Amino acid sequence: MVILQTKLNSLNQPWEEDWEQANKLVSEDRVMWAISLFAPYKAAGRLDRIFPTLMHMGLEIIIEPLIRIFRVCIALGYVPIAWRTYRVAFVPKPGRIDYSQAKAFRPISLNSFL
Question: Which residues of 12-25 are buried (b: 16+ CB within 10 A; e: fewer)?
């Protein structure tokens, strides 16, 4: 995993190196590959309500905007709050007698597919 340390110039703009790195990391092939890994009928994203099937079926339409969004996020070193927001549901583990302990539950995290 590549961790980028974004530097901002005096105008709070990313440096040219940041854009170059973003362009290297985010390509059409990589975005298409990542989206193809989503199982089509998983639950919708927490806030955006986007199902993986929608992304699969509309990939030709959304691929270019997604590439631009991902590159800007990398160049700026910023991940939108909606992508960092999770909803956690605690599902009881079967066969437990006592559910007063946290370990008697399995956490299921719901977040945005983007």
Answer: eebeeebbebbeee
For helices 59-76 and 16-25, angle between their N-to-C axes, nearest 10 degrees: 140
Whether the CB-CB separation of 92 and 104 falls below 8 Å is answered with yes
* Largest separation between any pair of C-alpha atoms in the chain: 61
8 Å CB contact between 83 and 112 = yes
Name the helix (H) or strand (E) containing 90.
strand 87-92
Contact 88, 107 (CB under 8 A): yes
What is the chain's pLDDT, residue by residue, as a tens digit (114 residues)? 445 555 555 456 788 899 999 999 999 999 999 999 988 888 777 677 788 888 899 999 999 999 999 999 999 989 888 888 888 889 999 999 899 999 999 998 888 878
pTM: 0.73
What residues pair up with 90 in beta bridges, in sequence order? 107
Which amino acid would we find at residue 91? V
